[in-house]
Amino acid sequence: MSEPENYVKKEEPRVSIKQRRKKSIGGTLGTLFAENQSMLMLFAAIAAALAVILTGIIALHMPVVPVCLIVLLETGIACCLHDVPIWLHAIAVIVQIIAGVLTGATVFMVLCVVEYLVGILCLRYVRD
């Protein structure tokens, strides 16, 4: 069989095996991230909560039960308020820091504010 006269054979540029592997790994990781986006955000929120709990217990020498309850309350507040306007988040953060100053646990409440913000950002990222 002969090729038609107007047939132009396209030559593809040669790609090394390393470049092919790099493309396939990047594509696989990108696909994996896209498919498991919500799970990764959940992992980030859980990691932030664990970091706050462990910092409060180990570094700040606070009792376990109040630390865990406050972190659970912060997570609940973040879940309830993730759709409200930004100015309401600012008021919530200011109230939390004032409560920390009044109780003498300013560092812990700043950590809780960070955990609150991570929770809100994770919820907004998963939703969009």
Give the SSE map:
Layout: H1 17-35, H2 37-59, H3 64-81, H4 86-103, H5 106-127
Helix pairs in contact: 2-3, 2-5, 3-5, 4-5
Describe this structure in words.
The chain has 128 residues and is mostly helical. The chain folds into two domains: 16-61, no CATH class; 62-127, no CATH class. Helices cover 78% and strands 0% of the residues. It contains five helices and no strands. It has helices spanning 17-35, 37-59, 64-81, 86-103, 106-127. Helix 2 (37-59) runs antiparallel to helix 5 and helix 3 runs parallel beside helix 5 (106-127). The longest helix has 23 residues, at 37-59. The N and C termini lie far apart (55 Å). The model has no long low-confidence stretch (mean pLDDT 84).
Tell me briefly what this model is.
Keywords: Membrane, Transmembrane, Transmembrane helix. With 128 residues, the protein is mainly alpha-helical.
Profile the largest sheet: none
Globally, the shape reads elongated
* Overall pLDDT confidence: 84
- Helix fraction? over 70%
Spatial separation of the terminal alpha carbons: 55 Å
Order of helices and strands: HHHHH
Structural category is: mainly alpha
From the alpha-carbon coordinates, what is the Rg to the nearest angstrom?
25 Å
Work out the number of β strands: 0
Tally of structural domains: 2
| Low-confidence residue ranges | none
Approximately what portion of the residues adopt beta-strand conformation?
under 5%
Q: If helices are DSSP runs of H or I spanning 4 or more residues, what is the number of helices? A: 5
Keywords: Membrane, Transmembrane, Transmembrane helix
Transmembrane segments: 39-60, 67-88, 94-123
